[in-house]
Amino acid sequence: MNTKIWDVRSYIDDITTFPEIDDIKQIYHQGGLIALPTETVYGLGANALDDNAVKKIYQAKGRPSDNPLIVHIHSLEQLTDFTTGITDEVYLLMKHFWPGPISFILPLKSGYLCSKVSGGLNSIAVRMPSHRIGRQILQLVDLPIAAPSANLSGKPSPTQFDHVYQDLNGRIDGIINGDQSEEGLESTVLDCTSFPFKIARPGSITQKMIEAVIPNSIAATTNFDSERPIAPGMKYKHYAPQTPIYLLRNFRHQPNYDKLWERKAFIVPATLKSYVPSNAQYIELCDDEQDIKTANHRLYEILHLIDRRDDIDEAYLYAFEDKDDTAAIMNRMLKATNQLWIDGDTL
Ligand code: TXA
Ligand code: MG
């Protein structure tokens, strides 16, 4: 399949002036697959009303069919077609955080969306992205768009056009190049089918941020890695680079210089650079141990990068302390490393 590339970066103010905008609209309406930028990661979009289009998403990604998709919308009015259960609390959170990096799982009203979107569940995840290009595309196409992250299943999510191209060129109808995703981690997924709500996948909208809007609205314990996770997607191996990678804790002195560090990469905050052996590869994760925003933004780019670089055989990834705002990145890092730890004190 020939994958079309549309570079719309200089049409960000008004996407309707992009010469090939009608092609994009038409392909979505005819059941094609087009990757589009969002503020979290790129999504692989298809018409959520069209079973055949949604089937192609699973095929292109190699995704297990029991893993449901998030439906992307541009206006709250679209929700009445396919969801129920928008309580005052849910509405308040939507008003507060949308458009933005949070998805809400709601009871599904059957008969409107095609059945494959929800993977056989009676609930549906929805999100209204804030990305200026992604949002305009959704407005213009004016369909509910099912969109998982635009990567091959099991690979790190794409935060740049190049990442999408690498995984999906030749497998989908087109890719909209809309620059680098600002957030860099997938949206928070909040299960609102019962109260208190449950965080099914942590993201940059944190528990504290949600509870600042509605106190005590999040169920106390959430186990993202249990056998029966709320989000089916959380049970699959995910986000993993090909290069062996370990989570690095207790990195507080220079390792032993007798070892061969040449083909090893240390992915750490700049404040810890002085501990990195001079013959090792240093990759800057963020400014300091508090700079979670930059680490979120860069993580997937770095995971892609270490696979592309042929001077790295093994990587050590700095582990953050457990806090409200590190829940998302630690969740992804644990998956990327398959929970393999290495202790800085023993290096
Ligand atoms: O930021 C994002 O959410 C990106 C962009 C493109 O919007 N999308 C994304 O989609 O990350 P995906 O398909 O890679 O991840 C969706 C997650 C999966 O873990 C899935 O199992 C879960 O949401 N999910 C979707 N619908 C669900 C439902 N009805 N109940 C429970 N979990 C659900
Ligand atoms: Mg994904």
TrEMBL record:
First-level EC class: transferase
EC numbers, comma separated: 2.7.7.87
Record: residues binding ATP: 63, 67, 149, 157, 201, 239
InterPro entries the UniProt entry points to: DHBP_synth_RibB-like_a/b_dom (IPR017945), Sua5-like_dom (IPR006070), Sua5/YwlC_C (IPR038385), Sua5_C (IPR005145), T(6)A37_SUA5 (IPR010923), TC-AMP_synthase_SUA5 (IPR050156)
Top-level taxon of the source organism: Bacteria
Compartment(s) where it occurs, according to its Swiss-Prot or TrEMBL record: Cytoplasm
Keyword match Amino-acid biosynthesis: no
Domain YrdC-like: 18-205
Entry keywords, A to Z: ATP-binding, Cytoplasm, Nucleotide-binding, Nucleotidyltransferase, Transferase, tRNA processing
Family recorded in the similarity comment: Belongs to the SUA5 family.
Protein's name according to its UniProt entry: Threonylcarbamoyl-AMP synthase
Gene symbol of the encoding locus: rimN
